[in-house]
Amino acid sequence: MSWRWGGWRPYVPVAQRRAQAAREMEKMRKKGVEVQPVAIAGRTIARTFWGRAWCDHLEGFGDYANRLPRGRTYVRNGSVCHLAIEEGKVTAKVAGQSLYNVEVTITTLPGKEWAALKRRCGGRVGSLLELLQGKLSGEVMTIVTDRRTGLFPQPKEIRLGCSCPDWAVMCKHVAAVLYGVGARLDQRPELLFVLRGVDHLELVSSATAAEVVGKSPQDRALDAESLTDVFGIDLDDAAAGPTATPGGRPARQGSGGAGRRKT
Predict the structure, then answer these.
(1) Backbone angles phi, psi at 31, to 5 degrees
(2) What does the alpha-carbon distance between residue 182 and residue 37 come to, in Å, rounded to a whole number?
(3) Helix (H, G, I), strand (E, B) or coil at 102
(4) Which of 18-22, 39-43, 135-139 has the lowest mean pLDDT?
(5) How far apart are CA 133 and CA 50, in angstroms?
(6) For residues 227, 231, 229 and 216, what is the CA-based torsion angle, rounded to 10 degrees?
(7) 122, 212, 224, 250: which could join 235 in a potential S-S bond, CB 3.0 to 4.6 Å?
């Protein structure tokens, strides 16, 4: 049936879609945009604690569980050509019949809820490395992944948008991006905190911070090297805490693949 007469759009082979997307991404690079594709090795989309927790959380909601599978093939075959995370927003480009623009807006975590979550954690997070690697106690894991009061957003806090002609609220391009966020959290778990508008360093106990400051330069250099290798995080900057703005509020830095601070 011809698409011109109201039927389905003509099928475009995957190789052709990828070639078209590659040309568009090259144009973006020439304009100075840092293109950040989502690359999945094998069939497993998310492998770490934070990535799996994100996917499990979204799949736990009825409407999402029914619609998310549409995006699995797209994210696995490299169709998410670009995905950037900043405070309260995920922007992406997904290769389909055309190259579509996807925007997912997520409400930042209210201050009262963040303060309550920190109180429940009660200094149980021992170190920055422990936090970002997801090597947390069962109690802390339960707190941060709680469906109602944890770090992850509720469906009512998520607004979805795609430039494709699909009438569905969650088309396969949006679904692919939501899974792409999980894959990105495997690499940069601190981006979850950037997305929700909170500072992950505030979950690290003050006792641990004091311990880090008291270490010898050699020990601190080893810790810094370990964090840089795993997450690209500078321990000296992390221990120093966030830079204050003139208004006294910790500085925030939007990210297209990096945290709000140079960490």
Answers:
(1) -85, 5
(2) 13
(3) strand
(4) 18-22
(5) 8
(6) -10
(7) 224
